[in-house]
Amino acid sequence: MKSRSAIAVVVALLLGTAPAQGEPPRLVVLCSVDQLARWVFDQGLPHLPADGGFRRLLAGGAHFVDCAYQHACTETGPGHATIGTGAPAAGHGIVRNSWWSAADRAVVYCAEQPMPPLPELPEAKDRGPGRLLLPTLGDGLKAHVRGSKVVGVAWKDRAAILMAGRSADAVVWFEAQTGNLVTNTAWTQELPEWIAAFNRERRIDGFHGWIWDRCGPASAYAGLVDDRPYEVPHQNGSNGRTLPQPIHGGASAPGPAFYAQAYASPLGNTMVRLAAEAALDALELGLDATPDLLCVSFSATDVIGHQFGPDSVEARDALLRLDRDLALLLEGIERRVGAGRYAVFLTADHGVGPTPEWAREQGVDAGRGALRKDARAAAEKALSRAFGAPPSGKRWFAHVDGDTFCLDPEVLEAVGGAGDAATLRRLAARTAAAAAAATAGVQAAYATEDLLLQSAAHDPLRTALLHALCPGRTGDVVLVGKPYWLDGRTPASHGTPHPYDREVVALAMGPGVPPGSRFAAPITPGFGVVLFAAMLGVPRPPGAVDPLPAGLLGTR
User: Fold this and answer.
1) Domain span including residue 401
2) How many domains does the chain have?
3) Across the strands, what pairs with 507?
C-alpha cells in the first residue's frame, strides 16, 4: 500500500499543483476574527506588543495587505462560508445571515436545519450546514485523507458550522442561555466526553464578577473617547459606557444575563480559546502525520464593535486582549504539535464602518436615519402610482431587510390580472429601485434581474453585488446605502459593499510561507483553503477562486 505522503504527491501532480516543500503540516488552523476590518487592525497594530499573537504571525509568516471579499453581503454567515469554501456568496449560497425564502414565504437562517438535539444539549437543536451549497476544505480533507480530523469552534453557531462543514468530526459553539458548549446530531449521535467535561467544569462561571478594565498602556487608547452617548451601556445594570466594568449581567450568580454580557466582552474570545484547546487535547489534533484541520472563530469582537463602535476604548482593549488569547493558542498548538509542524491562516468574516458620529468628526459625510423605512415608503408610493394600489390589507413587499426588497407575488398577481407575470415583476422591480434610489442616505438601488443580466465590467459596486446574488435566495430589489451612513441607532455595523466592510486582515504562517514577508497581490479571505490544500497536497474546494501568489510554497 502506498504511503499517505506518496498518495499526496500523486494527487498534487494530477491536479497540476505541487505540495509544500518538506514535510506537510500536521495541523492547519483556519482562524477568523469576527469584524476585524483592515483599517481597525492597521490602527491597532502599533499598540500590539512584540510577544502577542499578531506579531508572532507577522514575524513568522506573511501579511497579505490587499485582502477583500468579492461579495457585497458582508455579514458573519457569508464570510465564514467563504473562509471555509474559498467561494463568494454567489457560489456557496449563504447570501446573508438570514434571508427571505420565497418558497417557504418566511425568513430562513443561514445555519438553520431540522436536526434533533442530543438529549443533554436540547438548546442546540435545528442547526446544521444544510443551506451551504459547496463543500468546505474540511469536507475535502475528510474525503481525500483517511484518518484526518476536522473541528470547528466558535461562540456563534453559524461561524463554527459554515467554516468546518458537514463532514467535520466536531462542530461546537456556545449558547448564551445556558453558557454551555454545544453540538448536535448533525455531527455526533452521542455527546463526546470532552464536551461534557468542559461543561461540567463551568469555567465560564468562574469569570462571574470579573472586572473588565484597560489592559494596555495609556498610549494604546490615545485619541479614543470612553464615554460617547451613542454607545450601548454595559449589560450589568450600571448604565455605564466606560471601563472598568464588572461582568456579571446584573445578577448575583451566573445565568443568561451574565453569559450575554460575557459574550459582549473579551471573555467571549477567551472561552473560544479554552474550547479550542480542549478540542486539541481530546481529539489529539496534529499529533501524527495524518493532517488535521482546526477552524476557530473569535466571535466576541463583533458584538463589542456593534455595541461600542470599532473606534471605542472597548474595541481597542478587546483587540489587545484577543492578541493575548491568540498568543496563548499559538503557544499551545506549538507545544502540542511541534515547531514547523502546523500552519495558520487568520482573517475576518467581514469588516465594519466607523460610528457615523466619529466619522463626521473626522470631516466625513456620514449620518444615520430610517433609511430602509424611507426607501420602502418611496418605493411603495411609486408602485401604487404606476400599477394601482395593492389589495386591502396587503403591501407591495412580502419582506424587507437591510438591503433587499422582496415583492409579494400575490399582490403582483392581483394588480396584474391576466398580464405577463414576469414582465410585470421586472417593471415593478425597476420602478421600486428608481424610487428607492432617490431617497436620502441611499447611494444606489437596482432591480436584481438587471444586475444578473447586464455586464458589471469596470463597476466595482455592481460587481460586488453580483458576487452576493444567488438565484432563489435573492430579493427583487437591492439597495446600497451611502458610505458611512447607517440605518437605525446601532453604534456601528457592516453588511455593505463599501471597502471598509469588505477589506479585512489576512495573515499566514507555516511551511513554505516566508517569515516576515508582505504580499501585495490581491486575495480574498477564502485564500486560506487554497493555501492549505496546496500545503497538504489535496484538491482545493471546487468553489475556491484564489490563485497562489508567486513566492509562496516555492511558486514563481
Assistant:
1) 367-482
2) 2
3) 63, 346
Distance of CA 381 to the CA centre of its chain: 36
pTM of full prediction above 0.90: yes
Domain-located, residue 118: yes
CA nearest neighbour of 283 among 275, 156, 326? 275
The CA distance from 409 to 398, in Å, is 8
What is the arrangement of strands in the sheet containing 404-407, beginning at the earlier edge strand? 397-400, 404-407, 477-481, 442-447
Taking only the tens place, the pLDDT of each residue in 486-528 is 998 999 999 999 999 999 999 999 999 999 999 999 999 999 9
503 Cβ contact partners less than 8 Å away, ≥ 6 residues apart: 37, 38, 39, 66, 67, 68, 351
Q: What is the dihedral of CA 448, 450, 455, 459, to 10 degrees?
A: -60
What are the tens digits of pLDDT across the range 432-470?
999 999 999 999 999 999 998 877 677 999 999 999 999
- The per-residue pLDDT for 292 is 98
**Are the CB atoms for 150 and 164 separated by under 8 Å?**
yes
Q: What is the CATH number of the domain that holds 333?
A: 3.40.720.10
> CA nearest 295: which of 287, 282, 285?
285
Together in a domain, 298 and 414: no
Q: Check residue 182 and report its DSSP letter.
A: E
pLDDT digits (tens, 9 = 90+) for 20-49: 446 899 999 999 999 999 999 999 999 999
Q: Which residues pair with 154 in a beta bridge?
A: 297
d(CA 539, CA 225): 49
Domain boundary among 419, 454, 482: 482
The string of DSSP codes covering 50-112 is TTSHHHHHHHHSEEES-BB-SSS--SHHHHHHHHHHS--HHHH---SSEEEETTTTEEEETTB
User: Which residue reads 457569508 in cell numbers?
Assistant: 78
Q: Which three cell numbers stand for residue 349?
A: 468574516
In tens, the pLDDT along 56-115 reads: 999 999 999 999 999 999 999 999 999 999 999 999 999 999 999 888 889 999 999 999
In one-letter notation, the amino acid at residue 541 is P
Q: What are phi and psi of 254, to 5 degrees?
A: -60, 140
| Residues 118, 125: Cα–Cα separation, whole Å | 8
Q: Could you tell me if 277 and 325 are in contact, meaning their C-beta atoms sit under 8 angstroms apart?
A: no
**What percent of the chain is helix, strand and coil (3-state, nearest 5)?**
40, 15, 45
Are 329 and 388 in a shared domain? no
- Cis bond upstream, residue 78 (ω within 30): no
Alpha-carbon distance of 58 to 43, in angstroms, equals 15
* Within-domain flag for 490: no
First and final C-alpha spacing in the chain: 34
Segment 121-147 shows an average pLDDT of 98
> What was the pLDDT predicted at 135?
98
DSSP state of 488: S
H-helix segments, 16-52: 38-44
Least Cα distance to 366 among 357, 376, 374 occurs for: 357
- Written as nine digits, the cell of 276 is 479550542
C-alpha cell recorded at residue 3 = 504511503
- Spatial neighbors of 27 by CB under 8 A, at least 6 apart, are 285, 286, 291, 292, 293, 294, 333, 337, 341, 342, 343
